[in-house]
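User: structure tokens for this one?
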Amino acid sequence: MDKIIEKISAMGVVPVVAIENASDAVRLGEALIEGGLPCAEITFRTTAAASAIRTLCNSHPGILVGAGTILTKSDAETAVDAGASFVVTPGFDGDLVDWCLDQSIPVIPGVMTPTDINAAINRKLNVLKFFPAEAAGGVKTLKAISGPYGSIKFVPTGGITLGNVEEYLSLPNVVACGGSWLVKKALISSGEFDTIKSLVREVVQLVDRIQDK
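Assistant:
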């Protein structure tokens, strides 16, 4: 888990991807790598998710591939079998989290309330997805949470854009942000991988500036 978090933290932003055609994963991987962000969270919002994970892992072994929008243990099993290195959930499901921990699968469960955070603490987890970030109060909420939960780090996702990602990444309790704006479904399906590469480069440059401060 620590090694996965170190990699995610170093990148600063995790591209959150909903992909309709698994064959597009090859060119997507190329765009992410060439753009300087060799990481992807493939969400289980499409039927192609597992195949896309497998294709991406096989075609680009050096890329860090996780599975997002994991709702059930069955989803998690499918994702890991396809090659996912970590699992991300939108909400906190104790049974699902326990299964991942029992299987030594790195998991970043979604939380939105102090009750959710307490459930994670009881399982000795200290890096959590804050979702939906903007709708749940965004930066203001994360600042408020840092008081009683000073040891907890977050990966805020939901409503993150190039316009507000710096504000999130500047918080000491944020290790990285989830970014769906980098790899919108329409860009993938229309083959606009050069656009994706440009968007990735733009955010990589921003993250570098933030981390150099």
